[in-house]
């Protein structure tokens, strides 16, 4: 049984202390990939760090909500998507072009707040992925972890996951076999990661995470994920997690490796 794990950090480029945490999780822990926010305040810092860490896969964290010039909330975003008030393709293509112009060849795409669960947004993501030769698109939908209110949302994401996979595959793109991390966001420690390694299913799984360091920039940023990023960083770099991964025979991979395997 082959079990492979991609560990992806969202929000690269959000703040410099988030960037520092992501790089530390890669250098000292199990993190293999990250997705970059083209409109993040620390974009240039993230580009520099990506150049200094060539083993870190970098994709694009496509943003349609919560940034200047975009809808402020998810509810606003949904209304704008379905009213035609957003040029979704134009926004996403511009973000990808900015990342490529900075010298980064993106390996994968996902969206901030999982907005590509919405069919019009997913269509734009697939179009952009095809146009720029980006082979992988995230399909969120946790297994098998579900806690409280997030469990309800996670179940809805799993229901949508099948349709997303069919559209992604129809566009000639790829997705991992499994996804996890949504229900854990802001709430996981090394204990959960140790348990994950033992129960990882056969195939390729993406673990979404949000590591970081709690400096002044993150402390004043508009996000609920602050101290939890430090806890996630500690978990991703904990020796017990690496030991559990090795004991379970789990192989850490990035999207470049997975792409090379097929070619």
Structure description:
This protein has helices spanning 16-28, 43-52, 74-83, 88-101, 119-132, 148-170, 190-199, 216-219, 227-236, 239-247, 255-262; strands spanning 3-12, 33-36, 57-62, 108-111, 136-137, 178-180, 203-209, 250-252. With 263 residues, it is of the alpha/beta class. The chain has a single domain (3-262), classed as Glycoside hydrolase/deacetylase (TIM Barrel, Alpha-Beta Barrel), CATH 3.20.20.370. Strands 1, 2, 3, 4, 5, 6, 7 and 8 form an eight-stranded parallel β-sheet that branches. Helix 1 packs parallel to helix 9. The radius of gyration is 17 Å and the shape is globular. The model has no long low-confidence stretch (mean pLDDT 92).
Fold topology:
Blueprint: E1 3-12, H1 16-28, E2 33-36, H2 43-52, E3 57-62, H3 74-83, H4 88-101, E4 108-111, H5 119-132, E5 136-137, H6 148-170, E6 178-180, H7 190-199, E7 203-209, H8 216-219, H9 227-236, H10 239-247, E8 250-252, H11 255-262
Parallel strand pairs: 1-2, 1-7, 1-8, 2-3, 3-4, 4-5, 6-7
Helix pairs in contact: 1-2, 1-9, 4-5, 7-10
Short overview:
With 263 residues, this protein is α/β, with parallel strands linked by helices. It has one domain: Glycoside hydrolase/deacetylase (TIM Barrel, Alpha-Beta Barrel), CATH 3.20.20. Helices cover 48% and strands 15% of the residues.
